[in-house]
């Protein structure tokens, strides 16, 4: 039995400044087990926000795909 109250947690999060590119890079594990999700932005906060948005969009896509298979 699957519990629907479980909330996936972002894992493998790394946020670092790339001096050569002059931008912040944020990455995390893909919730679908694919390659890592990676974004870059001008500020630390924007990189975190973009990563969060991309991660949530990926979760929604995985949820839709799982429902389509049912």
- Main beta sheet: strand number and arrangement? 3 strands, antiparallel
Share in helix: 25-40%
Strand content: 15-25%
Number of structural units classed as domains: 1
**Alpha-beta classification:** alpha+beta
Q: Secondary-structure element sequence?
A: EEEH
Terminal CA distance reads 15 Å
Q: How many E strands?
A: 3
| Strand order in space, largest sheet | 1-2-3
What is the 3D form? Answer: elongated
User: What's the gyration radius in Å?
Assistant: 14 Å
Low-confidence stretches: none
In short:
By secondary structure, the protein is of the alpha+beta class.
Structural topology:
Layout: E1 14-18, E2 23-28, E3 37-41, H1 44-69
Antiparallel strand pairs: 1-2, 2-3
Structural notes for this entry:
The protein has 70 residues and is of the alpha+beta class. The chain has one domain (11-69). Helix content is 37%, strand content 23%. The chain contains one helix and three strands. A three-stranded antiparallel sheet has the order 1-2-3. Strand 2 (23-28) and strand 3 form a beta hairpin. It starts with 13 loop residues before the first strand and ends with a helix. The mean pLDDT is 91.
List keywords for this structure.
70 residues, elongated
